[in-house]
Amino acid sequence: MGENLQILAHAPVARETPALLFEMMRSFTALARTLNLSQAVEELGSTRQTVKRHIAQLEEAMGGKLFEVEQRRYVLSALGERSLESAQTVLDQAKIWYDGAFQHVGGMLRFAFESDTGSLYYQQQLPISCVWQGESDLLRAAIKAWSLSEGMLESHHMSDVRPYLLAYRENSEGWICTEVGEESFYSNWYGWAQARSSVGRNLGSFQGGQAFASLSDRPFRDAATTGGVRVDQVMVQTAAEGEGAPTAIIFDRLMMGVRMPDNSPAVISVVDRAYDVKILGVSDDVLTQLPPRAKVDFNL
């Protein structure tokens, strides 16, 4: 009983949320990103005193130091490192929510981006049951192979679906493509020459800016962190090989966390055309307008 009371004594104390919490979090993430007070102040258009006060308020509320100062340089503490990603995610989601492009539909994340130049990107998270209930033999085979392989990419159980997948690993530059299957949706759409040239490249900067990049990366991080499975339906406007005009294509994407032979984590992506539209606000007409090459020919 005494031990339980001692543990509870260190639990966070419920308190009223400060009106300036959003600005406090912006100060934290800017300083964490730059590790330089002057740069953070300039980026925020704020003052040194304000940023320092915000950090002090957050540290008091969270019960620990977010930064250490070593030889006049800011360094993230262990608490700061644990807090950074969630703080940035909250800020990114708030920005997109304010723009009306971030929602939850049936408890699943949906967000969208449309530029003035006509580019578009829609992403709707789907329940895993959509794989079993859907028409894609490829996605069903892929998730079965992943389960039988126990998440090991080089398992013989993955051999039938290996030509249809893309593999990614994370480094300091982001998510790097390490493998492109010759029979994959990506290869069919862009052509094999362009598809294989993607090996070694990162996903690139998302057109909608940092906030949209953060959310579009989320499926990769979810699969890598949990070693599990995530399903999304994506609609994007992009040009196929040899075609100048961008075309809207819609597809279902299965992402799975895997392990390499050295036991390091990676993510594989298996994509097939969508057979029905599940993204709120997107017309079924997009299916009838899909080009013939926006598909995968899969047979076991």
Automatic annotation (TrEMBL):
It holds the Pfam family HTH_1. InterPro entries: LysR-type_TF_proteobact-type (IPR058163), LysR_HTH_N (IPR000847), WH-like_DNA-bd_sf (IPR036388), WH_DNA-bd_sf (IPR036390). PROSITE patterns: HTH_LYSR (PS50931). Residues 20-77 form the HTH lysR-type domain. Transmembrane segments: none annotated. Gene3D superfamilies: Winged helix-like DNA-binding domain superfamily/Winged helix DNA-binding domain (1.10.10.10). This is Regulatory helix-turn-helix LysR family protein. One of its GO terms (biological process) is DNA-templated transcription. Belongs to the LysR transcriptional regulatory family. One of its GO terms (molecular function) is sequence-specific DNA binding.
